[in-house]
Structure formats: C-alpha cells, structure tokens
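hi support,

uploading two proteins for the ticket. first:
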Amino acid sequence: MNSKYSIIVILIFTILFVKLNKAFSGNLSKNQRLLLRCKRRCANKNNNRYLKRFCKKCLSLDMLDKNKNSENNEISYNNIFSENKNSSLILLSNSTKFDYNKIENLIVFGDSHSAVSTNYTDMTYTGWNHSYGKNWPLHLINFHNMKLWNYAKGGSVIDEKLVITPSYFKIDLKKQCKYFYENMSKRKKFYKEWNKNNSLFAIWIGNIDIYCKKKVPNEIDEITNSLFKSINKLYNVGARNILLLSILNGGCILKRDMNLNNYILKFNDNIVKKSEQFFKEHPNTNIIIYDTFNKLKDIYSNCYKYNFKDCTNFWVKNKQNNLEDYLWSDSHLSDHANRILAEDINNLLNSINN
C-alpha cells in the first residue's frame, strides 16, 4: 500500500514539474529557450568531436542574467563568447528571423580593410586589396556562398566633415551609402537583386577616424552618432540584418600607445551602446557586433597558435619571406589573418542558426 502511495505521489510531482517547466519555458525569450535545449543536449558526456565542438560554442551562450527583454518580449539579446575569448554581441529580433542559410547578398561598407576596388557604376570589382591576397569579405563569400556588393573605399571615414583626412580620401560612409541608394534602393538598377531577408549589411569603419583625430575623447560621441545616422538611413531602405565589426587595435599593439588603445575601446564601447539603443527603437532588426579588437589581441598574444611566425613586422618590408607567415601585410592584415577573421565571423553567424 505504501509503495503504491509513493508511486502516486511521485507521478503527481512529475506532472507538476513538467507543467511548471513548460510554463517557465513559455515565458523565456527565444534565445533562452535555445540555451536550455543546448544544455539538455550537452548534459551527457559524449566523445563525438563534432558534438564537443558544438557544445563548447553553444554553452558559451550562458549569459541569461544579461538578457534584456521589453515588456512585449520584442527585445532580447545575448553576449556570445567565442572559443578565443573574443566577445561578440548578438541582438536578435523576435519578429524578423535571422536565417544565415537564406543570406544571399553581402553588402559591405568600410575603409581599406574591406575594399575590393569596386566600380560603383556596375558594381564589378577587381578584388585588389591590401592583404596581398583576399581580404575578409572575399574570404567570407567563399565560406558562405553570397553575392558581394562592396561599397567600401580605402581611406574612408564615417563623416568627412568631422575628420580631416588627406584630399585624395574624398569619400566617407555617407557617400558610400549614397552610391548604395543610387544603385539598390527602390526602382534603381539593382533593386530586385536583394531584399531585407536575404541580405547582410556589413560595416567596418572608424579606424581612420580615431587615428586622425587630435581631440579624440570629446569627439567620439559625435563620430558614432554620425555612424548610426547612416545605419538608420540604410534601415529606411530595407536593411534588417546588420553586421558591425569593432575597430582594430593594431596601432596600440605595435606602438604600445595606451591613449590610442583607450580611444579605440571608447569607440567600440559606443558602438555597443548605440547598437542596443538602435535595437530598442527598431526591434525588427538583427544586429551582430563582431569583436575584431579582442580577436586580433588574441592572435597577437598567441602568434604561433594561429600558425604565424611574425605578428609584429610588416611583410612588405620582408618580401623575401613567406606572406602566409605574417599577421600584417603592411599596415593591414594579411591574407592569412583575413581568412581567420572571415572563418570566425562565418562560425559566429552559423552558430545563430544552430
């Protein structure tokens, strides 16, 4: 009799537990439910190397205490930490699903770190860049099949009215966006080639802005405000999936310039804060911030781990050596380094789907 009673009690508590668990899961954001499923899948030990790799990525999503949700559960995000300890911020919309498998167009804005010598009239490009091979957009479209629309231009700043640059650099992000509107906005030549769901807008700019400014601390807010004005205009013509790359710390690593390091950190911190604010105001966007800063720092600190032999000198000054051994081709990242960035970005974007 006692054993039957015990079984009944256990069954009752089991049913209650299942119901409570279901109710709890129902109130969680999409990202939190993903994490719970991930934990269940990875709870048991398994020697499968693919599962181990998946779990290492997936369990790093465990930042539930930092999730933010609006009252209608429209706004939620996770900080995702990759294997190499570089922190990237993911802001996912509940109304506009980010599906990397359906991304067919990579639309790029930026400076010489991203430029591929584009003809803005027909959007063809030679592919020439400072890596002396392929830079990150060219590698990324190899990792994930996409058509590249590259508006980046060497020497570009965010707003030329805010930053004085040499006269031959007469293009900025605002002009790049202008070329985009003229080519790809409604009723323009390439308008039917893309839509809000199958396109990823990638922006990596700000390096020259920080390097060229003299009174940087007082002007970074103004520069990042201008950046997000341009992003807002892109949003108005359909940008819903936005990838931002934080700016490099190459100068402060090589020169050991702590002031420059602090300026870069402030700029990157502003990007995060502005992205969160933009996301709150536009909850139908997906914003991904890739942490280039800490990725490069990790590569520099673990040069041989990444199969480099020289992470300090420029290859152009040592052309008798193998370019593949160098982190820097000149003042830009080498083909090898760009491939590492592109693969890491590709893994991050794939992890959102997984």
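and the second one:
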Amino acid sequence: MAVKDSVSKVVDSTMDSILSVFNVRWLHPTEECDLPLKNEIENDNSQLDNIRQTSPHPVLPQVEQELLPISPSVVADPQPGPSKLSQDGMPSSRSFHDLHIPVKMMEEFLRLAQDNTAKDLETCGVLAGSLQNRAFHVTMLIIPKQESTSYSCQTLNEEEIFEVQDMRSLFPLGWIHTHPTQTCFMSSVDLHTHYSYQVMLPEAIAIVMAPMDTDSPYGIFHLCDPRGVAVIRKCDLRGFHPHEEPDDFIYGPCSHVHMNPDLEFDVVDLR
C-alpha cells in the first residue's frame, strides 16, 4: 500500500535534517546540561512528589462527535512561532529543565502506528519518565487502548495508563500522536489536550508525527507561556474551533528538548 511504503520511508530515513527546523538538539556524551533555571528545584524527590500528587491527571485525547472532513487550514491554529532566543542567539531554555528523548522512540512509535496510518486513522501515546540530575528523561512510551478517526483519537481504560506509571514510579512528560495524511500542526483539540499536560508540568511536550508532510514530518511543540497558555485557559469551546491569536504565538517548537542516543526506553502497548 502506498501509505505504508511512505511511512516506512519516513521510519527508515535519518532525522538530522529535520531536527534543526525545530531547534531540537542532539546530545553528545561529553555535553553537559547546566543551563540557568528560573525556578530551581531543591531536589529531585520533592519535584516528583509534587507532580505525582497533582490532580486530576492530564486530559487525554478525545474524539469529537459527528466529525466531517475538515481541511488543515480550518482545523489548525496559527502556525507555530519560533523558539525563543537568548541574547547570544541560541535557543533559550532558561525557564525549563532539559527534557531528553530517546533517538529511536519516534521511529518506534511510527512503526507501532503504521497499521492505523495506512487506514488514515490517528494513533496516540503517552510519554512517561522521571527526573534525574535536574533533567527530565522519557523512558517509556505507553500506547493505550484507543478509538480513532482520521482527525482525532480517544483513549480507553485510562486507569491502565496511570497504573503503569505508578508501578514504575513514572509520571507523564507529554504525549505523541499522528496526523496520518495531514500536515504537521497543532489543532485546537490538540492545544486543549496539551494544556492539561503543560499546566501540570511546564516542560511537558506534544509530539506530532506527520509522515505525509515532506517538509515537516514531525514537530515537538508546547504552548507559549504566558500568552498561549492564557488563551487556552480562557477558552471554554470544545471540538475544532479557532482561537484568538495573541500578540505573538499560541504554541511553538521546544528549545529545551535533547535527542539522546544513549537513553533507553520501554514500550508498553496496552491495545
């Protein structure tokens, strides 16, 4: 099938040329991450306890009822803004702890989603991990039971996700989902879903995998703070809808993310 072949090409292709577009950094073994932070964490354990005790859990992707075919231009919010730059012209992550992602994780997710992608159905997953040495590390990809359409995905039996995280003493660092045939962007539904993650953990990320988008096969996004976060917090609308555009942008690529070739991860497929 043509879609499957295209997905396979994306999975097998190198990601070096794409990473620079989203200011994602490759982490080298000799590189040390010691960027100044706005809010220092006195120790890892207290941070973990605070996050684990947060209630309720993030709202996971929801299927919108009576969906009709919608073009990306209607579903999408304004295009993501650029990463914030520091005075030396480098991407600024001074407000966030670094977040490390295993290099092979996104490729593995595309492989697990390949059957759905071939049927033009979305697939979603949860990124779980821990805080070590003042940096977050994604060490588990959880694929929950789910129901999907071409434009959305709904998790089922969400208690299973929380049970897996609790058993491993992990907590949610973000989420990942596919756009099987659309371009790489965050829809209004995606933004509201991600708000529930980011309000708990400012470093939380949303990864969009768009294998048919030859220009941007994937993106690693978060809400711009404070303006983007404020727009979503004040919005009570559901489903696909436009948002009032703030002075800058509602969301953008992350500058605190590192692709770590040495970071191992587990996959828990609950489907």
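thanks. also noticed: Residues 2-26+77-269 form a domain with the Cytidine Deaminase; domain 2 fold (CATH 3.40.140.10).
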